[in-house]
Request: fold
Amino acid sequence: MYYKYRSLSNLQFALDILVNKRLYAAEFTKLNDPMEGLFTYGEGSVPDWIADALYHQKRTLRILSLCEQPDNMLMWSYYSEGHRGFVVGGDIADDNVKAVSVRYVKNFDIGDIRRADIAQAILSRKHEFWKHEREHRVFVMEGGEPFIPFKIRELIFGVEADSEMRKLLSAIAKKFNPGVKVKTISTSDLNTGAGRFRA
Reply:
């Protein structure tokens, strides 16, 4: 199962996930890591025409970022509006796309530049500073449908989520996603990377 952390600041986006059962895939230039898509090549520099070609090749891809855990305290802080948002857990509902595990690296050397999947290989790596995110990525082509069908199995609200919003979205989630499990995470359930809190 994969998880997506989301904010509740834009209700339309939250409803789109729960009602239409899909997640949005963004261009790599819209992601939050300023080093996204960077690479190095051996000892020298890559000629400008190759760098330009690779940039345009990367722009042909859209990325859906997912996580393998719903209890990551930093992820709640980064992507769920400081624990006021939610997480959806479930499975990719399109057999034509697969999730790729992100490789966390110290350097961005791309090795064999002639690889057919070089753009995806570049965009499947992040600096090791981000390894706590335990990210998986789904790639789809630009120009096609920017949404990935997603079977929602869990809806988890943050510890600071508004109670009325929780009630509303819980009812909507259950109506459009039969069998979905709904809960609010507690501080004792949050994984800090150094053990869990105890009261």
